[in-house]
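Standup notes, structure subgroup. Blocker cleared on the magnesium ion input:
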Amino acid sequence: MNKIKIAVQKSGRLNQDSLKLLKDCGISIDNGKDQLKASASNFPLEVLYLRNGDIPQYLRDGVVDIAIIGENVLIEKGTDIAIVERLGFSKCRVSIAVPKDAEYKSIQDLDGARIATSYPNTVLNYFKQFNVKPDIHLINGSVEIAPNIGLADAICDIVSSGSTLFKNNLKEVEKMLTSEAVLAASPNISAENQKILDKLQFRIESVLKGRK
Ligand code: PRP
Ligand code: MG
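Run returned:
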């Protein structure tokens, strides 16, 4: 039987809420321990657990048909990928932060500043409108530590509760964008899988209405 392939974040903040949404849609997924792939027993769906940053490329290549992913990841590297539904969870913002004691008046202060981030395109696009050129240092995780170890003057990362900034003596100075979990679809989805997606989307919309 044909199954739609959905990418879900392997570990991290979206993982549990994504699986909860599928469960609330009445879809039972048989999760073996440490398995990277699982099938639903009562819906034509297969779940692939992937790294966040890899998901846009998998969608583009049609390796997966759909994904539950942070909108911020699509803004960073998947602007060509369509959002099918906004899911209302994992809300956060993508912000610039500097050391708590640093003097900060405006974004002009960051001209030539070293900015540690996993979101280079987002930073460059935002800064372009102010004609400010940052010096990007690409880091894949634990970005907030960079100013404390002398690696950067500022950081750009996701802020949710703000606790990571607080713990690292940083203050949020620019809110670049807000984000939430979204359902995204491959530009190469087959007609057959589109039908399954329509059914899934119908269920998701019912669940989201019930949550309001
Ligand atoms: C994420 C993100 C921030 C933090 C924001 O990191 O990169 O560091 O969460 O959340 P908060 O405002 O509620 O503290 P995560 O802990 O997922 O780890 P990583 O950066 O190593 O991927
Ligand atoms: Mg982090």
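Discussed briefly. The mean pLDDT is 96.
Next: hand off to the docking folks.
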